[in-house]
Amino acid sequence: MTQSPQEGPNAPTREQIGHEVEEARQELGRTVEALAAKADVKARAHDRAAELREQVVWCARCRCRA
Q: Does this model's pTM top 0.70?
């Protein structure tokens, strides 16, 4: 009789499996957050507008000094 991959000396322990599951959950959480951020068009537009506003202010200050 052969041993299944889940049996034997090289089989992962419950602790190892639990650790792998926790890592997978964390990775999934990061992926979901990234996708949600990309899907939030209103927030992305607001952030981009703030960046452009800062650039305009910076350029205006530079031109006033020149």
A: no
